[in-house]
Amino acid sequence: MANTTQSAKRARQNEKRFAINKARRSRIRTYIRKVEEAIASGDKEAATAALKTAQPELMRGVTKGVFHKNTASRKMSRLSARVKALG
Known about the structure:
Helix content is 86%, strand content 0%. The protein is mainly α. The chain contains three helices and no strands. The protein is elongated, with a radius of gyration of 17 Å. The protein has helices at residues 5-41, 44-63, 69-86.
């Protein structure tokens, strides 16, 4: 429990940021899952299209501080390698 008004406000702000970051992280995971489903189905065109929509979302997550830059780069690299291997 927060003891001071400042710590109470900080707790409220943390809750708000947590909800925003959670939604953003969930949204990014959905885009990644769509790419993986397209890869699993073997449809290269759908996988490429899904990858192109997932890439800016991942990078937006980096700029918003949800993911580390290297984490997003690693995910993109691995996904694009899997899409490339479909052909």
